[in-house]
Amino acid sequence: MIEGHCRRFTPKGAGFVKSVIAPMGLALFFLSSCAPRSPVTLTDSDDDATEAVISQAIGLLGNRYIDPLLPEQLTINAIEGLEAIDPEISVSLTPEDILARYGKNTVVTLPLPDDDETADENGHIHADIWAALVMDSLRTYRVYSPALRQASALEIQSRVIAGAIEGLDPYSRYENPNRAEISRDRREGYIGIGVDLIAGTGYPVVKKITENAPALKYGIHPGDQIISVDGTDLYNRSQLEVIDRLKGAPDSIAVLEINPTGSSLVRRLEVPRERIIARTVFPEIRNNVLIVEVRSFNNDTAAEIDQAIADAKIWSAGPLAGVILDLRGNRGGLLNQGVSVADAFLTSGPIGTTITRVPAAKHIFTSDDRDFTNGLPLVVLINGRTASSAELVAASLQDRGRAVLVGSTSFGKGSVQAINDLKNQGTITFTWSRLVAPSGYTFDRIGLHPAICTSEIGDHSPQQLISHAMDDKNALAKTMQAWRTVDFKNESSRAALRRACPPSYGTDKYDVDVALEVIKNPAAYGYFRQQSTLQTVAAQTID
Fold this sequence. Notes:
It is a single chain. Residues 13-37 and 538-543 have low confidence and may be disordered. β19 (349-355) and β20 form a beta hairpin. The strands form seven sheets. A six-stranded mixed sheet has the order 16-17-18-21-22-25, with helices on both faces. A five-stranded antiparallel sheet has the order 1-14-13-11-12, with no helix packed on it. Strands 7, 19, 20, 23 and 24 form a five-stranded antiparallel sheet that branches. It is 34% helix and 24% strand. 42% of the residues are buried. The chain folds into three domains: 44-168, no CATH class; 191-276, Pdz3 Domain (Roll); 281-532, 2-enoyl-CoA Hydratase, Chain A, domain 1 (Alpha-Beta Complex). By secondary structure, the protein is of the alpha+beta class. The protein is built from 17 helices and 25 strands. The radius of gyration is 27 Å and the shape is globular. This is Carboxyl-terminal protease. One of its GO terms (molecular function) is endopeptidase activity.
């Protein structure tokens, strides 16, 4: 640790942030002034920027969302987003017009464009026409609404885009620039010191520190306040600005002034910046079996899996007997990383495909004969929180006969979201395709069925559970056939199948014990693989 000097810390006025360590954990108290909100002066360039962002969002949704969307409805939804700023705002649609109301009065009637003006010959909507209608209504509402006149350009953009996307599906969303940068850093990593912060009022407070990050090595702790970075005072700075100032070039030095929690002194630290990305893979070796917990998929996950397998071959006390891939609680992440993780255990063949109306979202995923484990017995653990790209990994390994699934029915999120950067540095994320397993079924809304169900075990030992499952000859194969051929639109049929092995949500060691027993028992491993392996069915049409 490089520590230049300490000085006594004198807090600033009403915006000062106090941090207190309580017996039950960290409590953060924020003192803020109650001054009235200052008016915001918006320029023509602010409105131009807002119109450009709205046009971009409407274009992306109208042309790339998985289901066709009417541009006039997107426009109405976008305008309705302004209601979050002023509840007196309302809007309705007639066959010819958009009616913008304030209170009980219609304040402007906006004619809808002619059909031949709204899209090109390929059906791609002209988003700028619809964005202009949103802006026309916005300018009119400003005349009547004090709240809207006080709203910043970023707040207006956020409300309008959130309105446009609201209600499409549970996974489509808008993130403002602050949230977008945090999400981007988690997916891709960044160069910094590795702290999560609470900022915006007073001095920023350290909320959490990334494992093995420079901040941890140099003695920064949760609850500490960061007073300045590289000579810039951080009092009342926004979250985004603080994050940006803590970032920098690789191996550059962040000169920090830190007020440790519970102290009246300020410490000066020189902390080197490094690439920061959350660890997602947690391996251990037990009885010569590699157990790999994968919590999510970011840019480093596949490389971490490869390294875990390579390390296990070196450090195992004897020859590796098998691998347990623990995907319980893994809600997904980057799809390409999930595909690469599946590839690490497969010979050449299919991993999955997507179905969509959007040409750019159509993909066929295949494995490249990598199988780093050379065919070692493989068991995959799943539960009710295993979702999305984690489900694709498990489905491909199950369908290809490469792994035995143990646990409970998984979540059932077989949709793919596109993440798009907007011109205001925010992001819009929306569903644009659905995943199809190698056997041809989509697990969206139904999930995956494990070969060995542990969600209702009673007092059975792992050995008894395995033996009981093997006694019921061909039951698993029949269930898997029904699972893969169920009518996608028949909710009651899907629900009935899911009840055969209800979702569980814990990470009990019992699942691991069952997996270890399966790996030790070649007959059981072969039986469950054979009973749950690929049976090709026609890909389903999704309305």
